[in-house]
């Protein structure tokens, strides 16, 4: 799988220990729960930590 990714984007830097990456222009994640984590990160950036926390409680995502 990693080989295929590097064939598609040979200059990409793979960050194996990261659930999601924000390079300031593009945000990306790998997997379902990592996508939820990225979504909550975006909510926090746009609306603050209290909205993020309320969203997590609503989703029952702790």
- Stretches where pLDDT is under 50 for at least 5 consecutive residues are none
Q: How many distinct domains?
A: 1
Structural class: mainly alpha
What Rg do the Cα atoms give? 14 Å
The main β sheet shows up as: 2 strands, antiparallel
Question: What fraction of residues sit in β-strands?
Answer: 5-15%
Distance between the termini: 30 Å
List descriptors:
3 helices, mainly alpha, about 60 residues, about 10% strand, single chain
Describe the model.
- The structure is a single chain.
- A two-stranded antiparallel ribbon has the order 1-2.
- By secondary structure, the chain is mostly helical.
- The radius of gyration is 14 Å and the shape is elongated.
- It has 3 helices and 2 strands; from the N terminus they run αββαα.
- The longest helix has 16 residues, at 32-47.
- The protein has one domain.
